[in-house]
Amino acid sequence: MWQNNPVYPVIWRNDSVSLIDQTRLPLEYSYVEISRSQDMAQAIKTMIVRGAPAIGVAAAYGMYFGAREIETSNRDKFLKHLEQVAQMLRDTRPTAVNLFWAISRMLKTAYETIGSIEEIQKTLLETAQAINKEDLQTCHKIGENGLKVLPETPEKLTLLTHCNAGALATAGYGTALGVVRSAWRGGRLERLFADETRPRLQGAKLTTWECVQERIPVTLITDSMAAHCMKQDLIHAVVVGADRIAANGDAANKIGTYSLALVAKAHNVPFYVAAPLSTVDFSLTDGSQIPIEERNSREIYQVGETAIAPEGIDFYNPAFDVTPAELITAIITEEGVLAPEDLRKYQNKQMV
Questions:
Q1: Residue 351 banded pLDDT, cuts 50, 70, 90
Q2: Is 233 a catalytic residue?
Q3: Among 163, 255, 336, 345, which residue has the fewest nearby CB atoms (within 10 Å)?
Q4: What is the pLDDT of residues 159-192, one digit of tens each?
């Protein structure tokens, strides 16, 4: 089904938030209406909304919902309850730092707003809406900056991406897929190769779906085919997103990204990480300190309702891995294309 409008996974309307239910794509395009903080926390936890920037936007609205649910006129009691809402939202996903960044910004807004509880609540909604708008603008800037750094080739480019770092993973347009979109709209892209991204298949289900909406030529491959494609000179560059980046440039992204970076290095293919500066966690010196979420083993031993492995075996299901900075050609941000070692220069620009 073709969508005539751009894809926006988090939409404020009618005093509530509409989330595209990403667990139902690509077979069903539907929305879930959220108006309570607990429901927003559950939507983040169950991956109805996913992708680090989109999670941050959703969490900001979740903080507002929590604020308007608090029934007190006492400022201290209000802030104490709001801290509890913040912790509930923090507990949903441990790796995506945009979640914590957005919650911290909302809490800071609440503490700094002078006036009645109603005025604090109003300001929190305005802040959540600002986070939403800013992320969309940031993604467009990332796309523009990425287009400038992509390799110059005699023919049009073929790019490879992993997981989904598109409109669905952000407020819209995307980070890694934002670079792809800019290349496509700028007439420089021949084709996108998309890893299927086991075990939840975000590349197969979400990235290819987004490409279909915009008529971007896309070829789906299994994760294990990337090395072969590079050996056949089918890939000019790899562009991926990130859920958290340490101060030294080590980047956590969906499991399989690290091995893709190793393969790219072996074949002299540029490997770019596209992410907003809000994804950089300057409190972490390197990637070894990034918490890695482990998910239910059911994601591995069955596809849909069909078991694909025998009973009596063990499972290990980390959702993310960390790509060392030395394997990253550059990090594409809204402030420009940065070498990993240059991230610290932008620490003061990160709004917390």
A1: very low
A2: no
A3: 345
A4: 999 999 999 999 999 999 999 999 999 999 999 9
Euclidean distance between CA atoms 339 and 262, whole angstroms: 18
Q: Which amino acid, one-letter code, is at 234?
A: L
Q: Choose among 202, 272, 270, 276: nearest CA to 244.
A: 276
Please tell me which residue in 39, 135, 223, 243 is annotated as part of the active site. Answer: 243
Q: How far is 345 from 322, CA to CA, in rounded Å?
A: 22
Q: What is the pLDDT of residues 248-265, one digit of tens each?
A: 999 999 999 999 999 999
For range 133-161, the mean pLDDT: 97
Q: Which of 129, 148, 168, 176 is nearest to 279 (CA)?
A: 176
Residues 307-315: what's their mean pLDDT? 94
pLDDT band for position 349 (50/70/90)?
Answer: low
Across all residues in the chain, what is the average pLDDT? Answer: 95
Q: Which amino acid is at 105?
A: R
CB atoms under 10 Å from CB of 351, counted, come to: 12
Give the count of beta carbons closer than 10 Å to the beta carbon of residue 31: 15
Q: Are 349 and 277 in contact (CB under 8 A)?
A: yes
Is 167:9 a contact under the CB 8 Å cutoff? yes
How many other C-beta atoms can be found within 10 angstroms of the C-beta atom of residue 165?
34
* CA gap 55, 234 in Å, rounded: 33
Query: How many other CB atoms sit within 10 Å of the CB of residue 134?
Result: 17
Q: Would you tell me how many other CB atoms lie within 10 Å of the CB of residue 350?
A: 15
Tokens for 331, please give them: 């990090």
